[in-house]
Every structure is written in C-alpha cells, then in structure tokens.
TrEMBL record:
Catalytic subunit of cellulose synthase. It polymerizes uridine 5'-diphosphate glucose to cellulose. Pathway: Glycan metabolism; bacterial cellulose biosynthesis. Its main location: membrane. Its cofactor is Mg(2+). Residues 578-674 form the PilZ domain. Residues 161-325 form the Glycosyltransferase 2-like domain. NCBIfam families: CelA, PRK11498.1. Keywords: c-di-GMP, Cell inner membrane, Cell membrane, Cellulose biosynthesis, Glycosyltransferase, Membrane, Transferase, Transmembrane, Transmembrane helix. CDD domains: CESA_CelA_like. This is Cellulose synthase catalytic subunit [UDP-forming].
Length: 740
C-alpha cells in the first residue's frame, strides 16, 4: 500500500485522539477510568441531593433558567470538561423533573387520568434510563488510532477473508470479491473465500475465473452465522476478516487494522465502521444525502468509540477482523439469536477477551434502497437484541465489567422504544379529546419542570453527538420505525426463539416513484388522530379559561410537534426513482481521456461505479455522445487503461459507460476506485454540525411538506380504496349468484 495514503489515514485519526487518551498506554487508560468512575460517583451524589431538594415554584424557575443559560453559554466550547458539565446539568434537571412527576403529579384525578398518566410516566422513565445510559456510554470516546505493523512482513499473521452471500446478484458481489483480492497483504498469508449459501453455478464459475475459493454447504441452517461457522471448519487462517457481500474493502484494510493484534493476545476482535456510499431511504426520499448525517453514523461515529473506552465494542457482522482461536473458544459465531454479531461479541467479553473499534472507514457498502427493506432490516435488529436481552441478559452472569453491562444493556433497551414513542405521539390527544390530565399539575408547573429539562437534554446530546446526529432527527427515525419494532420486540421477550434471519435486499432498482401506502399506514392513522386532536384543541381554546386554557395550549403545541414528525415520516414513504444498476461513489482524482486517434483530454473524476464514470473535462468541445474512448486511471506509479462509451454530454461534463471490461480490467477498475486506501476518508461524517433551532426548522419544513402531500393525496387514496372494496363485494355477490 502507498505509504503516503497510510500516513494520511493515521494522521486523520490521530488528530482527535491526541486531545484525549493514548489507548496504547494501558496504565493511562486505567487511570482515566478510575477518574471517570470517581466523577460518576460525584455526579450521582450531587444528583441525589438536587433531585429531592425542596424548592417552591419560583425558586425552581430561577434555578432552571440559570442552568439553561449557563449551558447555552458553554455549549460551543469543544472539550471533555464541557461535555462532563453538560451531562451533569442535564442529569440534574431531568432527575428533578422525574422526581416531581412521580411525587407530585399523581396526587389526584379520576381513573381515566391515572390510566393515561401512568402510560406516559412509564414512557418517560424509559426515556430517562436511556438518556442516563447513553451519557455513560459516550462520556469519553476513545478515538483509537491505527498501530504500525512489524517492519518485516514475514512476521505478519495469516488472514482468511470471508464474503458470505445468499441471494444477492453477482454484480453486487463482484466488487467485494475483486477488492478483497487487492488487499495489500503478503499473497501467501491471505486467502479469499466466497461463502455461497445460494449454491449458485454462476458464482462458482466466477470464483474459479478470478482465483478465489467458492465454499458451499448442504443446508442453510442458522443463516449467515451457520454459513461462517461452516467455513471456519475448513479454513486455517490465524485471523478471519468478514465482509458482507456488498461491503467493498480498501487495499489498506488489513494494514490499518492488524497492528493492534500484535503483542495484544487478549484482543479478540477489531471492528471498523459500516460506511455507505449510496443513500438510505431517509436520505433518498427526503433529499438529505450528505446534508443530514446517515441514521447509522451516530453508532459508528460516536457510540462505538464510547463503547471502546469501556472495552465493549460490538462486532457488527462485517468490516471486522476476529482472532480464530478465541472465536472458536466461544463456539464460533453465535446462532441462538438473529443478531449473531452483537451476541458473539458479548460471548467474547464474558470469556474475558477484549475488543476494539477503529473509526477509520476502510470499507463501504450499499444502503437499503426502499423503506420496506429498511424497516425489515431494523425489525431483525430489534428482534435479535430483544432475544439477547431475554436469553443472555448483560445484567446477569459473570465476566462483564460495569461499563460493558451498561453499553450492552443500553444497546438492547434502545430497541424497546416502539411503545414509548407511540405513547409520546398520542399522549396529548388524551387531554384534547377526552379531557384527561395525563400530567396532573398546573400548566405553569409543567412548563417550569419540563421545558428546561428538554432544552438541557437536547443541548447536551447536540454537543456530544456533533456531526454524527443532528438534533430532533432521532425522533424522525424512531417515529418511522416505532410501530414495526413494537410487536417483534415484545414477542421476543415472551418467546425468544421465534423469528428467523431475513436477508436485507441490496442492489435493487425502483423504476418509478410511488408512495408506499402499506408501510406508512400506521403512522398515517396516528397522524390523522393527532390532526383530529388538534381540531378539538381549537374548540377547547374557545371554551376553556385560566389554567385549562394554558394546558390546552401546551397540549396543542405538543400535538403540533407530533404532526410535523409524522408528516416527515409520511414523506419518507414516498419512494424516489432508483434506475441506476450501479450506485455511484464520489472520488476526487485526475484522469486522462483518450480518443482512438490518441488525442488526450485532462479530466477530473466526479463520481464512479462499476458501470461508469462521471467526469469534468477540460476544454471539452469535440467529444460526442456514443463516442468510444479510453480512460487512463492512475494508481500510485501504475496506470490503468479502460474502454468506455460516452453515455451523456452536458457542457464540460461527461457520463461515461464502461464497455465490455475483461476480468483483468474489472480488477484494475476496482483497484483504482473502490479499493483506494483513502477513498472513503473524506466522505465519512461530512454533514456539518447544526444548531438545534436550525435542525428543528429543517424538520418543520419537511414535516409541513409531508402533511400537505398527504392531505392532497388522501382523498384519492380513500376513494380508490372504497371503489376497490365495493368492486370486491360485487364480484363476490356475482360469483355466489352464479353458483346458486
């Protein structure tokens, strides 16, 4: 691998790392954990004092105002001290709110008030626990940096590359196979295996043609986990690197990752980010690609780094390296649950082994194309985490530290947000429609306790999460998925063996735009209920006075916010066209375009895929559509010549299509694009940090547009549904008449 590229990768990760803690110095890390534990004890002590401190309403109002203003003053100071202060202040205000809710808002009321109020309180307690666990989990991101390998590559270990596949098209898997073959590692110490659970002849032929091993097994027992375990029995490498079949590794992957295993015998696994070069349904349908962080960036950008401090980095099923002996010691990849990856890491930690996380994108893959596919994937994750919670709860059993228990527990409890989220989306309707006081207190009291706590929680999380999650977007993601993960998570608690492994489809096309009415149905219903409640609220404004008037205002504001969240959720279900067979990544390199008569044009690459290139050509004026050309792509001291056809011309911009590439040319293309050592570094976490109000305004706009879209389309959908139902009834009657 080019040394300058490796240096760039190391410098990129070292910058943030140097301001925190040297992970290679174990004594320093231990000291930091002791200091942090002491700080947590101090926070807990002060929290207990302030939570139960008696204050009248005026004092509480002044206290909250001072805390909020101080937090807003320091929020832009980027340092661990600021982070600790904001977390402490947020815990104080949220704890006081919850203490007030439990001790002073259930003193009176009728059975309806108690019923709705208890449901809301349970949801609030859940949110509070997740908030606290999240603070502990991310309080000190480790920001581990790559470690150098031995100068003598004869000392480097042997590595088997596993690429499991089941039903994905060969075109999706080809780049991963070719990139794995290009990984910069001694040839005698690396071997690539395609684990084909589809047992397909075209895969076998392709593997033989390119020179990798094609492995199959007689059945598909335990899905992906069973596929990998079967391969472990017939391979011998000291380490196993696993890539999902659409996750394309860079040439530098092993050189960036493997240094940590040297001299660290307890280290069982290193995970790297799952980076996606295609937009997911949120980014595609809401037009937020690279403007708003991807849903998964919070986990891979921050949470895994926080886990790493507590020695609790999770195995995520792909883009990771595992030491074979330790993996076999825990029985291979876990098969008891459908989230085999996280469960495997939990087993390794229970055995006393360590894991690590390197936040350096060294592979990239395809995001789910459709909302239905995205929902299906999240259902599997939620079900699997609930299964682990039920069968191998991290609070129970031996082998885990306090930090590991918190990190695992938070990851599992996170997926129980379905019911709390639906409660938050419907709670204000209870007052607006039925007059139920879900919080039995004066409106001014509710505002005094609730608003400061919400501001502080948002401010602290915004400061901690930075570029990885914009404020309020988490609520959009949860609103879309809440209904669908509710049943499988609750059912998994009752019957943890229920539910099978579903493969997430990748590489599909969406030929025309459409609205997924089926997948959006539940939150359209909840949206209509909120709109109905809002109309009742308007009626209440004209019929209530005093404190009841203020209570109506608060519940209408809450309902209005829910309407915007649900409007954004509706808009996610409006599927955009996806006609490209080969999703494109971005690349900033200079190439040369040559005509058959050897005229040359300098050009800059804008984007690339296995199907073609987007170029900006200098002094373009003679190149025409359908013209056959050659593109000369550089890589270090080599140049690759690839035949292309001009598919589109727009000024100085050309869309080129690769023309009948040989296997060798496909290898060269992958080497010069997907497998470049630094190809994904500059596209990782590129969305800029946003102020909370700016992010809220963004959601207001999207939510308003979603509601307008729904109100325009809903009459037509209802009429079409009525006609369909009537037609079905008439057909049944006609059929019955014919029979009789």
């Amino acid at each position: 691998m080019n040394h300058s590229m490796l240096a760039k990768l190391r410098a990129r990760t070292a910058a943030a790392f140097d301001s925190l803690v040297s992970a290679s110095d174990n004594s320093s890390l231990i000291d930091d954990k002791r200091l942090l534990s002491l700080a947590l004890v101090l926070i807990a002590s002060v929290f207990v004092f302030y939570t139960s401190l008696e204050m009248d309403l005026g004092s509480q109002m002044v206290f909250s105002l001072i805390v909020v203003l101080f937090a807003l003053m320091i929020r832009r100071i980027s340092s661990p001290v600021t982070r600790m202060i904001l977390i402490f202040l947020s815990i104080v205000l949220s704890s006081r709110y919850l203490y007030w809710r439990i001790t002073e808002t259930f003193n009176e009321g009728n059975p309806i008030d108690y019923a709705f109020g208890f449901g809301l309180l349970v949801a609030e307690i859940y949110a509070f626990v997740i908030l606290i666990f999240g603070y502990i989990q991310t309080i000190w991101p480790l920001n581990r940096r790559p470690q150098p390998l031995s100068a003598d590559n004869r000392d480097w270990p042997t590595v088997d590359i596993f690429i499991p596949s089941y039903n994905e098209p060969l075109d999706v898997v080809k780049p991963t196979i070719l990139a794995a073959m290009a990984i910069d590692w001694p040839a005698e110490k690396i071997k690539v295996y395609v684990l084909d659970d589809g047992r397909r002849e075209d895969f076998r032929e392709y593997c033989e043609a390119v020179g990798v091993v094609h492995l199959t097994r007689p059945d598909n027992k335990h899905a992906k986990a069973g596929n990998i375990n079967a391969a472990l029995k017939v391979t011998q490498g000291e380490f196993v690197a696993i890539f999902d079949c659409d996750h394309i590794p860079t040439r530098s992957f092993l050189q960036v990752v493997m240094g940590w295993f040297s001299g660290y015998p307890k280290l069982a696994m290193i995970q790297t980010p799952h980076h996606f070069f295609s937009p997911d349904p949120f980014e595609k349908n809401l037009k937020t690609f690279k403007k708003v962080p991807n849903e998964g960036e919070l986990f891979y950008g921050l949470i895994q780094d926080g886990n790493d401090f507590w020695n609790a980095s999770f195995f995520c099923g792909s883009c990771a390296v595992i030491r074979r002996t330790q993996l076999l010691e825990v029985g291979g990849i876990a098969v008891e649950t459908v989230t085999e990856d996280a469960h495997t890491a939990l087993k390794l930690h229970r055995k006393g082994y360590d894991t690590a996380y390197l936040a350096v994108p060294q592979a990239a893959g395809l995001a789910t194309e459709s909302l239905s596919g995205h929902v299906g994937q999240r259902i599997r994750w939620a079900r699997g985490m609930a299964q682990i919670f039920r069968t191998d709860n991290p609070l129970l059993g031996k082998g885990l530290s306090f930090g590991q228990r918190v990190c695992y527990l938070n990851a599992m409890m996170h997926f129980f947000y379905g019911l709390p989220r639906i409660i938050f989306l419907t709670a204000p309707i209870a007052y607006l429609v039925f007059g139920a006081h879900v919080i039995h207190a004066a409106a001014i009291e509710i505002a005094t306790y609730a608003i400061p706590f919400l501001i502080l929680a948002n401010t602290a999380n915004s400061h901690i999460q930075g570029n990885y999650r914009h404020s309020f977007w988490n609520e959009v993601y949860e609103t879309v998925l809440a209904w669908y993960i509710l049943r499988p998570t609750l059912y998994a608690l009752i019957n943890p063996k229920a539910g099978g492994f579903n493969v997430t489809a990748k590489g599909g096309l969406i030929e025309k735009s459409y609205f997924d009415l089926k997948i959006s149905g539940p939150y359209i219903l909840i949206l209509l209920l909120n709109l109905f409640g809002f109309i009742f609220g308007v009626w209440r404004l004209f019929n209530e006075q005093g404190d009841e008037f203020l209570t109506a205002i608060i519940n209408m504001a809450w309902t209005g916010y829910n309407v915007l969240l649900l409007g954004a959720s509706v808009l996610v279900a409006r599927e955009s066209i996806q006609r490209r067979e080969h999703p494109r990544g971005q690349l900033d390199i200079n190439v040369s375009v040559q005509t058959p008569d050897e005229r040359a044009y300098s050009a800059k690459v804008l984007d690339f895929s296995m199907g073609g290139l987007g170029l900006e050509v200098e002094h373009q004026g003679r190149l025409q559509k359908e013209q056959s050309l050659f593109v000369v792509m550089p890589l270090n001291n080599r140049k690759f010549v690839l035949p292309v056809r001009v598919a589109s011309v727009s000024g100085n911009r050309l869309g080129l299509q690769f023309h009948q590439l040989s296997i060798e040319q496909e290898k060269n293309l992958v080497n010069a694009t997907f497998a470049r050592a630094d190809v994904w570094v500059d596209s990782w976490a590129v969305a800029s940090r946003k102020l909370s109000l700016s992010s809220l305004w963004n959601i207001v706009q999207i939510g308003a547009f979603g509601n307008i879209y729904l109100l325009r389309k809903l009459p037509g959908w209802l009429w079409a549904n009525i006609k369909f139902r009537v037609s079905s009834i008439l057909k049944v009657k006609e059929k019955n008449a014919e029979i009789s």
